[in-house]
Amino acid sequence: MSKNMTPEKITQKDLHGAWFRWWWANEVPHAFDRYISPSLLLALMPLLRKLYKNDDDLREAYHRHLMFFNTQAIWGGGTITGIVASLEETRANQIANNEEVTVTHDLINNTKLGLMGALAGIGDAIDSGTVQYIFIAIALPWAQAGSPMGSLFPWIGFTLVTYLYGYYFTRNGYKLGRAAATELVSGKKMTAIIEGLSVLGLFMMGIIASSYVKVASVFTLNISGKEFVLQNILDGLLPGLLPFTVIMAIYFYFSKKGIKVTNAILGLTAVLGVLAWFNIL
Questions:
Q1: Is there a contact between 46 and 81 (Cβ–Cβ < 8 Å)?
Q2: In angstroms, what CA-CA distances link 202 with 139, 205, 219, 237?
Q3: What is the CA radius of gyration of the chain?
Q4: In 3D, which of 15, 139, 1, 22 has the Cα closest to residue 71?
Q5: Which residues contact 28 (CB under 8 A, 6 or more apart)?
Q6: I want to staple 22 with a disulfide (CB 3.0 to 4.6 A). Which of 43, 167, 219, 243 is the partner?
Q7: What pLDDT, on a 0 to 100 scale, did the predictor assign at position 40?
Q8: For residues 117 and 96, what is the distance between their CA atoms, to the nearest angstrom?
Q9: What are 176-203's pLDDT values in tens digits?
Q10: How far apart, in Å, do the first and last CA atoms of the chain sit?
């Protein structure tokens, strides 16, 4: 075997470069036929060039990672990038050493296809359903006070935190290989973590809603010289009853009709407008 045909070792710097390229470009080349596979190939290209010194092998690897691919950017993208790098390194060494190639083209593709949906579900539940709302809840008082950090902090915090643990997933995906998927997709510990974070996300949404959704009644009624204020009666029954009612109405609408935000906004505006017209709200 010629020395210049020997695959080079993948370093931590290479892995960080792959993660950064994926993180930066994961939605840029989005297309219906390949979805975001060009982003994955962009991330892997320098690694593949270090591994495959034969042009035909390199061309095959490029083609392999241009096939349909779609997943969540952090949990799916980071983990799969690391796993694929590990599999490609093993395959390249097997080819270079004239060994039996057990890491086949189909094995790599099936690994990606099998993981991209499961990891996307985990990532969406945690990143979009929990982590971002924690930063939003922290920053809302600053936004109400007129501080620019009220709008900047959620974006900066979410970007920094997800970038760091996405790189962690990339490193561990490479280190553990296909076993990394088992650690993330299955197991009681991960299930408990996901359930706990989902509950935390609901708490954060409840905190935000109770603090910042303002709905109050202005309806009053004078009976025998005594004034009855509807809002005082409602507060006596359950403080925050009207905001809670509005939020639950939107929740049940989304549950029945799907996430149709524009329809919900228009419908809610119409209902509240009518109630305001009759001096009820």
A1: no
A2: 17, 5, 32, 24
A3: 26
A4: 22
A5: 39
A6: 43
A7: 92
A8: 33
A9: 775 554 454 455 555 565 565 556 556 6
A10: 82
Structural contact between residues 162 and 131, judged by C-beta atoms closer than 8 angstroms = yes
Query: Measured between alpha carbons, how far is 171 from 9 in angstroms, rounded to an integer?
Result: 14
Q: Measured between alpha carbons, how far is 180 from 118 in angstroms, rounded to an integer?
A: 13
CA 183 to CA 181: how far, in whole Å?
A: 5
Q: What is the pLDDT of residue 2?
A: 44
Looking at the whole model, is its pTM more than 0.70? no
CB 91 within 8 A of CB 123: no
Q: State the SS3 of the chain.
A: CCHHHCCCCCCHHHHHHHHHHHHHHCCCCCECCCECHHHHHHHHHHHHHHHCCCHHHHHHHHHHCCCCECCCCCHHHHHHHHHHHHHHHHHHHHHHCCCCCCCCHHHHHHHHHHHHHHHHHHHHHHHHHHHHHHHHHHHHHHHHCCCCHHHHHHHHHHHHHHHHHHHHHHHHHHHHCCHHHHHHHCCHHHHHHHHHHHHHHHHHHHHHHHHHCCCCCCCEEEECCEEEEHHHHHHHHCCCHHHHHHHHHHHHHHHHHCCCHHHHHHHHHHHHHHHHHCCCC
